[in-house]
Amino acid sequence: MTARTGNTLGAILLLALFAFLGVRSSLAVGGMDLTAGQRGVTLLQWWYAVLAAIAIVGLLARHAGTRLVLLAWAAIFTTRNALTPLYFGGKGAAFAVVGGAIGLAIALGVLYLALPTLRPTDPASTS
Q1: Do 123 and 17 form a contact (C-beta atoms < 8 A)?
Q2: CB atoms within 10 A of CB 115
Q3: Where are the domains of the chain?
Q4: pLDDT, mean over the chain
C-alpha cells in the first residue's frame, strides 16, 4: 500500500465515521421538541453527513471537484462543533470556542489526508 492509498483510506474512514455519528445523533433528537438553534445544529449535522458521502465518492473517483466539497464539509463540521455546546449543552462561549477548535483540528486532519490524494500524478515521475 502506498502512502497515497493509505491517506485516501484514512480520509474515507474518518469521513464515514463522522457521517455515521452525525446521522445517528440527528436521528436521536428527531422526536424531541427542539429550539431554533438546536434545529439549526441538527440541520448542519445532516449537511456534513451528506457532504461526507459526496466526498467519499469523489475521493474514490479522484474527482477534482472534491476539493470544494471537502472544504465545505470542513466549514460545516467546524461550525457544528462550535455551536453544539451552546445549543445542546447549555454551556458558555468558552466551550463553543473549544468545541470549534477541536472541530477545526479534526477537519484539518481530514483535509491533510484527503487533499494530497486529489493531486494529479506526474507520469514522468512514476516511471
Answers
A1: no
A2: 16
A3: 3-119
A4: 90
